[in-house]
Design goal:
The structure holds 2 protein chains of 2 kinds. Chain A is mainly α. Chain A is built from 12 helices and no strands. The two termini of chain A are 20 Å apart. The chains are: A mainly alpha, B mainly alpha.
Chain lengths: 292, 60
């Protein structure tokens, strides 16, 4: 397969890879909490001392995690390096949670600064923990040439249709694991009321970008095997789009199953709910394709 | 490629990696300090406002 990604020789690209791995770990860990209105409420009512305490405790926990896991390919050797990585992990968590809250219209220019800060800091805790454990449970395997060659031969023998069905199944399983917990809650109708046309397009773009990043850029476990898969859609772009469509179909079924959608609703509600649930479903689907 | 060339490449990569890490650490520190600064600013503003408002009432 031509799309196999090799480790970058350029240190700046390697650094980008590390940051991308961290951000992807953050999304995998933080997205369920992002769709939890209680966290928005706790964040919006939080007092500044509580926010500072949350940041300090997160920094301490992430420092300890960075001593054993971290998000970099090369684990932090000294306490100073672990502390530096901890600051970066928190910054990644803050940036990711802020972007997602803006995308979901939970942070707008109309809400007070303290509320926005509270929401960002409280949502960033889960994202930051995801960044800090990214390398531990989704460790990269880019140097395992021998095993990947064997895997390639085995994969070539597989039927393309079976591989494609396997991909779609893995996407559906992963999407269900994440989105099944979110579909019956009130968060989707609540978010839908605030999100209009252009924001829905932005959410679709973010879903595709994050999914692509997790599967093809972050350097997680099984990424090389993933890129050698012989499915019909097995090109990074086509696989990302096809998997997104599968995740959207899965989201619609889940929403209908939990009676969040009915045939009396206008098509715009179906579209809005599906795209909103499609974001966590796509992230789950990406993890599913790497895991299975 | 000779061993000497390999080791010099590795050294360059190590130096470059350190620089790239320092740059991203600098940006990350700025983000963290900015957020913490905003929170402290809110904290102080609130504290000063609540301190001044009863005094004003007394004066009136």
């Amino acid at each position: 397969m031509s799309a196999i990604k090799r480790p970058h020789k350029n240190p700046w690209f390697r650094e980008c890879d590390d940051l991308m791995r961290g951000a992807s770990g953050g999304f995998l860990f933080g997205i369920p909490l992002l769709y939890t209105m209680e966290v928005w409420q706790v964040g919006s009512m939080a007092e500044p001392p509580a926010m500072i305490a949350a940041l300090a405790v997160t920094l301490l926990v992430v420092f300890l995690l960075n001593r054993t896991a971290g998000f970099r390919k090369n684990q932090a050797g000294s306490p100073l390096e672990a502390a530096m990585d901890s600051v970066e992990a928190i910054a990644i968590g803050l940036v990711c949670s802020t972007l997602m809250l803006i995308l979901l219209r939970e942070i707008t220019l109309q809400i007070p600064l303290q509320e926005a800060l509270g929401k960002t800091i409280y949502e960033s805790v889960a994202f930051t923990l995801g960044v800090a454990v990214a390398n531990q449970f989704l460790r990269g395997e880019r140097n395992q040439e021998g095993s990947s060659q064997n895997g390639k031969k085995k994969q070539q023998d597989k039927d393309k249709l079976n591989a494609t069905l396997g991909d779609m199944g893995a996407t559906l399983i992963g999407a269900a694991i994440i989105a099944f917990n979110i579909a019956p809650t009130d968060e989707i109708p609540l978010l839908s009321a605030a999100v209009s046309g252009p924001w829905l397009v932005a959410i679709m773009a973010a879903s595709l970008l994050i999914s692509y990043g997790i599967v093809f850029e972050a350097g997680f476990a099984n990424q090389r095997k993933r890129q050698q898969q012989q499915g019909i859609f097995q090109r990074p772009l086509s696989e990302t789009i096809a998997s997104y469509l599968v995740s959207l179909i899965g989201s619609t079924i889940m929403l209908y199953f939990f009676q969040q959608l009915s045939f009396d609703e206008p098509w715009s509600v179906w579209l809005s709910y599906t795209i909103l649930l499609g974001l966590p479903a796509t992230i789950g689907g990406a993890a599913g394709r790497l895991a299975i | 490629m000779s061993k000497a060339q390999n080791s010099s490449n590795q050294e360059q990569q190590q130096q470059g990696r350190a620089l790239a890490e320092w740059v991203s650490f600098g940006i990350a520190s700025f983000i963290l300090v900015a957020i913490a600064g905003l929170v402290v600013h809110q904290w102080l503003t609130k504290a000063v406002t609540s301190y001044l408002s009863p005094n004003r009432k007394r004066h009136h």
